[in-house]
Amino acid sequence: MLNLTYEYKLKPTSSQIAIFQDWLEQCRRVYNYALAERKDWYRSRSCRINACSLNCEYIIPANAPRPTYASQCRGLTTYRKTSENLQQVHSQVLQQTLKRLEQAFVSMWEGGHGFPRFKKLGTIRSFVFPALGKNPVQGNAIKLPKIGLIRFRQSRPIPDNAIIKQARVVKRASGWYVMLTLQWDVPVPDILPHGEAIGIDVGISHFVAVSNGQLFPNPRPFKRLERKLRLLQQRVSRKQLGSNNRAKAQAKVSRLHERIANTRKQYHWELAHNLCDWAGMVFAEDLNLKGLAKGMLAKQCLDAGWGQFLGILRGCCFKRGVYFQKVDAKKTSQTCPECLVETGKKPLSQRVHSCQYCGYTTDRDVAAAQIVCIRGLAAVGHTVKMLCEGKHIGVPEKKESSRL
């Protein structure tokens, strides 16, 4: 079973945009009401039993069960009968909002995330249709329940043998989009190690260093547009709260943020395809991205977007039949790829690897990428003699590519 998500830009009418905005607001209110119900239940169980609280009291019976997704769905069904606004929204869309809240609590319990927060006006920007009718796509239009046909820009064709399982309508600064989850009932074979191997090392001075010696620059999309973003945010702060001019200024800030994100993502996709052109096996470091995002170089790490790039690279390798695997990232910059001896820590200002034992000299990031390649080859069980054939360990022959 294979699932992929195709994204298309919608071309809704003014009346359809009004429906979208109303549905987002109703989803936000349902989310906040369900969160308040759960929060009150938790606080009522944390009050002291021998003293009254000076702030507030939660009069909830002691035998009242904890609110869950199932119980809140039943309550939603009862309340929809008395609310005309909620009756305008598809019932499954509201249920998906409650499921979103349930997932937030699961992330708090299992993923170490914080307690879910209430959503401000305009914070919720998407709603989901978990099921669509038969043949929802008709030409260049898609039929959504209770809304009808909506035109969209079909940037790529939808395969005939794919089943549309769900649709997510997303609001962005540049317009409205629909994300279709497609499912193919086909077996997905596992990609086995084959062909040449390369290791990559992500960094800040160079975005990616490859074990074959190639260095890719860091585009730094946020840093290049940071000054313009600062000026636009200053204009927003000088506008009156709630005015139309403030909303227009905030829209410009949102469009610039989307431009930065699109620039970064486009570069990641081009680089991922470039790496897949070179080899049949790609190895990368298994980094602690959350820890790096809290260090002194957090701003530069987040601007680079290593987590998004590694996710895109994994998906690109899967679609193109390239084997991808992460390896241990410890001491990759402290080990010589020629003699495999630890050379000690290097300051960040030292950009050249020079081994004091064997004399091997190369770029610091390239040496780390070669160590990643060596560890990847060892992980998949290949020997040096089988894959290197007299060449440098883990350094495949460099090929030309025209993508970047």
Write up this protein.
The chain has two domains: 2-47 and 56-184, no CATH class; 197-387, 2-Layer Sandwich (Nucleotidyltransferase, domain 5). 41% of the residues lie in helices and 19% in strands. It is built from twelve helices and 14 strands. The chain has helices at residues 14-45, 69-80, 84-87, 91-111, 221-224, 226-237, 244-276, 289-292, 298-304, 306-320, 364-379, 384-387; strands at 2-11, 126-129, 137-138, 141-144, 148-153, 163-172, 175-184, 197-202, 206-210, 215-217, 281-286, 323-328, 352-354, 361-363. A seven-stranded antiparallel beta sheet has the order 2-6-7-1-5-4-3. The protein has a five-stranded mixed beta sheet with strand order 10-9-8-11-12. Strand 4 and strand 5 (148-153) form a beta hairpin. The two termini are 33 Å apart. Mean pLDDT is 88; it is low at 383-399.
Number of helical segments with 4 or more residues = 12
How many strand elements?
14
Q: Order of strands side by side in the largest beta sheet?
A: 2-6-7-1-5-4-3
Radius of gyration: 26 Å
In sequence order, what are the helices and strands, one letter per element? EHHHHEEEEEEEEEHHHEHHHEEEHH
Q: Report the β-strand fraction as a percent range.
A: 15-25%
End-to-end Cα distance: 33 Å
How many discrete structural domains? 2
Quick recap:
By secondary structure, the protein is an alpha+beta fold. It contains twelve helices and 14 strands.
What's the helix and strand layout?
Blueprint: E1 2-11, H1 14-45, H2 69-80, H3 84-87, H4 91-111, E2 126-129, E3 137-138, E4 141-144, E5 148-153, E6 163-172, E7 175-184, E8 197-202, E9 206-210, E10 215-217, H5 221-224, H6 226-237, H7 244-276, E11 281-286, H8 289-292, H9 298-304, H10 306-320, E12 323-328, E13 352-354, E14 361-363, H11 364-379, H12 384-387
Parallel strand pairs: 8-11, 11-12
Antiparallel strand pairs: 1-5, 1-7, 2-6, 3-4, 4-5, 6-7, 8-9, 9-10, 13-14
Helix pairs in contact: 1-4, 2-4, 6-7, 7-10
